């Protein structure tokens, strides 16, 4: 039951993010007479400190989080999988060098590195994607390296080598197809982390810049009026919580479904 609720939340999030431009929204319109108005006075979630409808801005914020999550996870997965797979299959000093690079990145909290990079490059959605991708590839590289080290000594790989198959063919036809399942699970959990990271950077002023809406910037703007109009914080905060919990629960279910050890015979 909880899995279907999670799927519904994710479909609703993706739906409003994709259909947002087609809806009649006014996220930038300012109505001075409705500043800090509570929900039920012309819009579902009320108005913010500038008289802008929170629902309209929440929909565009969902689009921002979806775009950043998809871009960062896609770039991180391709880069991390390529580096981890190639270096692990080649072995020797290639693998040792990659292990040291991964250890260096893991020695520092990823969000701190992302904050430092976003601060150096400046705010903006493009720089947020670059900063989060720079630290996001490490997890995929470590996972793909571990998978290749356990797969390249199996019988079907050794048979392909004995038959004269090239390295590219072995990697693309005999290794990567067996790594798809764990990589998909890793990507699912990475989406939740990217959503939180993007919201955190926007909260600090290093993400999407005004007047463009972002869930993190909406929480930052509403924090000053939390005791007077808590709906300014609750709307984006609950949205972040629901999406992250839904993604994580779906990732757990996907991991159990793809793990043959937990399936019934």
Description:
The chain is mainly alpha-helical and 265 residues long. The chain has one domain: MetI-like (MetI-like fold), CATH 1.10.3720.10. It is built from nine helices and no strands. Helix 1 packs across helix 2 (54-90) and helix 2 runs antiparallel to helix 7 (167-203). The longest helix has 37 residues, at 54-90.
List the helices and strands and how they pair.
Blueprint lengths: L1 H18 L34 H37 L1 H15 L3 H12 L3 H27 L3 H8 L4 H37 L11 H9 L7 H28 L7
Summarize the structure.
The chain is an all-alpha fold and 265 residues long. The protein has helices spanning 2-19, 54-90, 92-106, 110-121, 125-151, 155-162, 167-203, 215-223, 231-258.
CATH fold field value: MetI-like fold
What's the total count of β strands?
0
What kind of sheet is the major sheet? none
**Radius of gyration from CA coordinates:** 22 Å
**Strand percentage:** under 5%
Low-confidence stretches: none
Order of helices and strands: HHHHHHHHH
Helix content: over 70%
| Shape field | elongated
Q: What characteristics describe this protein?
A:
MetI-like fold, 9 helices, mainly alpha, 265 residues, 72% helix
């Amino acid at each position: 039951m909880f899995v279907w609720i999670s799927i519904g939340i994710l479909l609703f999030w993706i739906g409003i993010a994709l259909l947002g431009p087609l809806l009649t929204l006014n996220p930038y319109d300012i109505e001075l007479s409705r500043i800090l108005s509570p929900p039920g006075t012309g819009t579902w979630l009320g108005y913010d400190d500038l008289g802008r409808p929170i629902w309209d801005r929440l929909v565009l914020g969902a689009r921002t989080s979806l775009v950043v999550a998809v871009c960062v996870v896609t770039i991180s997965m391709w880069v991390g999988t390529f580096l981890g797979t190639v270096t692990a299959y080649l072995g020797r000093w290639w693998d040792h060098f990659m292990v040291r690079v991964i250890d260096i990145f893991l020695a520092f909290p990823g969000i701190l590195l992302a904050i430092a990079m976003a601060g150096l490059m400046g705010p903006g959605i493009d720089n947020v994607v670059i900063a989060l991708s720079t630290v996001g590839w490490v997890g995929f590289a470590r996972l793909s390296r571990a998978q290749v080290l356990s797969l390249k000594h199996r019988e079907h790989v050794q048979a392909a080598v004995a038959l004269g198959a090239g390295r590219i063919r072995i990697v693309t036809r005999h290794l990567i197809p067996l790594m798809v399942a764990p990589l998909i699970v890793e990507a699912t959990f990475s989406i939740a982390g990217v959503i939180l990271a993007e919201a955190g950077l926007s909260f600090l002023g290093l993400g999407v810049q005004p007047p463009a809406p972002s869930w993190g910037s909406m929480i930052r703007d509403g924090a000053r009026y939390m005791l007077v109009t808590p709906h300014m914080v609750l709307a984006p905060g609950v949205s972040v919580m629901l999406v992250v919990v839904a993604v994580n629960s779906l990732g757990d279910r996907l991991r159990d479904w793809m793990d043959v050890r937990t399936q019934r015979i």
